[in-house]
């Protein structure tokens, strides 16, 4: 049996092998409910900072500044007519604070500044690669893990010279300190990623190494145990970031930005951005809310609560609009009003609206009641009633409730302690893409915690959990926005970052931009871009993207200059044949085209090819209008929507939705 040993970088987890009891597993996993009142969270965070030592507080202050800076929405009204808006002032303050800290040698500030100069986000200082590498190297010399990971990426991807024609090579001091083990073009990058892991950890580095080991990319031999260990570390980091992001949603639902993970096509209309949450739509929603439209009120309340899309974060305004919707008898208004109050620790105020929502069979209302009983907010603490309320929510399809029931089962709170039951709850939640459930299942499988040790299954779940990494979605989002704004270099750098973290859409899109956009910018480098394109398409194809193997074949069959043209040609046809076996009509078409190319029929086929490509455009346009037509129905970006299809059936507990027990 292969030993799925996990590296020491996974913090404080003894490996309990074989048949562990539920209590032992609970001690290793330390699972917690997805919902906690703010006061409890703050106290826990303070205790953690205390335990970790005094340096942490200062570090966290800088991290908060950086995060605040990244969150600033400096899109629309920045710098109009030289008037300094409050936001700009805040931005200037934050930038100055970071500059001061960096000049004073604070590694995190140097690293943040390096990232900003490199990626050139709208809110940050203008892109300047000289400054970017200067600050990143300074931070790396001080052992800052994100800077080490970024320099590893720059070495591995050769992005600066390829994308920006900027001459940069990893400095000798760094290669001497982190010498590459073994040979190959990727060894130095890998050494820097490893350095990032040993000096504190970096999700980017863990993902990059995990994807190398799981697929045997970049000259390493594929290894499930090594890949699972890296993905576990990545997933742990992703969970922490996700938790922070969930603080901004009422119920900490899972934010879903899958629309950004699209693959780029040659002819493609601009996307209908995120189900219409542009400024004009927000204005319209605000108008609807004011004239008494319930959906508008709930929508505005969510925007005020999360403080996104140009709406300032304002809990009081959120509560106001939820209350307005509740006054119209809307169960979502009741449930969310209750949850907002519960988060603030106001149990007495939270219970009446939660009860009203539960009475109207609102899943979030039931979940909120469950949390109130679990923490004893406004009622006497009662784990059994908490479990009953959560069961009712779970039966109505509330994904978080299903996950939380698993936590209760493992801890034996409100029900008999049972490892088997916990695993069953989590398995259902994991199958419906609950990242936390995927993370726990993956860790149990990797260690054989109360279940058979199974590296492949562990890797599968840990990879999915790690893919919930919010920053990864951010990269795809920025890449897409830059592509649509016709800024291929900016798009490419973001997609390359995602690609080296092993995200399939990013691999495909990096290949696409190398194949299509970059040669148009710099025709003299077309051959080198083609090489890069085929490498990224190949990696995406290995991850199972049929689309990418077709693209790879296209790139290879364009390669007529190289002396390998015969072998490229053969490989291209093999790829098409493989894709055709997977049922791709496009591939069959290309296959036929390649066989006939060079014959008199060529002209006819060139015409057909033009028609074919127009067809892609038409199909896409139809798809776009479909999204436009249906997208408006969904409230923007709240996790509960994603849970709507998951339903938990527990027959032996059928009395739980008997409401009387929960009434006043
Ligand atoms: C910027 O900093 C100054 C002084 O440090 C402070 O008075 C001012 O309120 C800050 N402005 C913002 C928007 O935070
Ligand atoms: C970057 O900053 C350096 C030093 O201030 C300056 O000489 C250079 O022109 C800048 N580069 C760009 C592209 O702005
Ligand atoms: C890259 O930059 C160098 C000098 O900075 C220049 O000579 C060369 O032509 C550039 N190459 C491309 C493809 O732009
Ligand atoms: C990556 O590292 C190798 C070995 O140290 C070096 O030769 C190469 O120039 C580096 N590449 C980049 C883009 O920094």
Automatic annotation (TrEMBL):
Keywords: Signal. This is Uncharacterized protein. Belongs to the sel-1 family. GO terms for cellular component: endoplasmic reticulum membrane. GO terms for biological process: ERAD pathway. Residues 1-22 form the signal peptide. It comes from Emiliania huxleyi (strain CCMP1516). Pfam families: Sel1. InterPro entries: Sel1-like, Sel1_AlgK, TPR-like_helical_dom_sf. The lineage of its organism: Eukaryota, Haptista, Haptophyta, Prymnesiophyceae, Isochrysidales.
């Amino acid at each position: 049996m292969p030993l799925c040993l996990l590296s020491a970088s996974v913090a404080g987890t003894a490996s309990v092998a074989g048949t562990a009891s539920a209590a032992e597993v609970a001690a290793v996993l330390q699972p917690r409910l997805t919902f906690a009142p703010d006061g409890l969270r703050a106290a826990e965070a303070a205790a953690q900072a205390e335990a970790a030592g005094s340096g942490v507080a200062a570090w966290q202050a800088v991290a908060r500044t950086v995060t605040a800076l990244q969150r600033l929405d400096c899109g629309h009204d920045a710098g109009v007519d030289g008037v300094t808006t409050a936001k700009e002032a805040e931005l200037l303050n934050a930038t100055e604070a970071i500059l001061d800290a960096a000049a004073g040698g604070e590694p995190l500030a140097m690293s943040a500044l390096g990232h900003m100069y490199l990626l050139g986000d709208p809110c940050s200082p203008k892109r300047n690669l000289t400054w970017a590498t200067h600050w990143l190297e300074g931070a790396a010399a001080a052992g800052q893990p994100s800077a080490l990971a970024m320099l590893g990426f720059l070495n591995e991807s050769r992005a600066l010279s390829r994308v920006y024609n900027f001459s940069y090579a990893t400095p000798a001091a760094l290669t001497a300190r982190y010498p590459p083990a073994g040979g190959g073009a990727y060894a130095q990058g890998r050494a820097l990623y490893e350095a990032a892991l040993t000096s504190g950890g970096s999700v980017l580095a863990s993902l990059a190494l995990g994807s190398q080991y799981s697929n045997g990319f970049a000259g390493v031999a594929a290894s499930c145990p090594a890949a699972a260990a890296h993905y576990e570390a990545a997933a742990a980091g992703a969970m922490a970031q996700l938790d922070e992001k969930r603080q901004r949603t009422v119920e900490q639902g899972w934010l879903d930005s899958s629309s950004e993970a699209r693959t780029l096509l040659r002819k493609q209309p601009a996307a209908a951005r995120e189900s219409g949450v542009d400024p004009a739509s927000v204005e319209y929603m605000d108008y609807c809310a004011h004239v008494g439209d319930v959906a508008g009120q709930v929508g505005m309340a969510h925007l005020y609560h999360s403080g996104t899309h140009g709406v300032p974060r304002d809990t009081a305004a959120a509560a106001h609009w939820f209350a307005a919707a509740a006054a119209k008898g809307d169960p979502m208004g009741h449930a969310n009003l209750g949850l907002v109050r519960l988060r603030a620790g106001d149990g007495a105020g939270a219970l009446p609206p939660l009860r009203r929502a539960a009475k109207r069979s609102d899943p979030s209302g039931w979940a909120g009641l469950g949390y109130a009983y679990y923490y004893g907010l406004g009622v006497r603490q009662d784990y059994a009633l908490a479990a009953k309320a959560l069961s009712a929510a779970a039966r109505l399809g509330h994904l978080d409730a299903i996950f939380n029931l698993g936590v209760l089962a493992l801890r034996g709170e409100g029900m008999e302690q049972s490892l088997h039951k916990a695993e069953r709850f989590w398995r259902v939640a994991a199958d419906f893409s609950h990242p936390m459930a995927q993370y726990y299942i993956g860790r149990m499988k990797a260690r054989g915690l109360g279940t058979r040790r199974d590296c492949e299954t562990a890797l599968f779940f840990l990879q999915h959990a790690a893919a919930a990494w919010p920053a990864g979605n951010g990269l795809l989002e920025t890449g897409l926005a830059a592509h649509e704004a016709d800024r291929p270099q900016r798009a490419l750098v973001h997609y390359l970052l995602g690609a080296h973290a092993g995200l399939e859409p990013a691999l495909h899109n990096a290949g696409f931009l190398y194949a299509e956009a970059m040669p148009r910018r710099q025709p003299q480098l077309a051959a080198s871009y083609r090489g890069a394109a085929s490498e990224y398409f190949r990696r995406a194809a290995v991850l199972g993207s049929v689309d990418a193997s077709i693209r790879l074949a296209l790139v290879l069959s364009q390669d007529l200059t190289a002396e390998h043209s015969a072998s490229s040609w053969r490989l291209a046809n093999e790829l098409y044949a493989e894709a055709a076996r997977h049922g791709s009509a496009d591939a069959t078409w290309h296959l036929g085209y390649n066989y006939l190319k060079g014959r008199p029929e060529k002209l006819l086929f060139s015409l057909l090819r033009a028609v074919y490509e127009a067809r892609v455009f038409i199909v896409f346009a139809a798809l776009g209008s479909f999204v436009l037509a249906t997208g408006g129905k969904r409230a923007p970006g709240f996790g509960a929507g994603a849970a709507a299809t998951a339903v938990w059936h527990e027959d032996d507990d059928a009395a739980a939705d008997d409401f009387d027990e929960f009434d006043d």
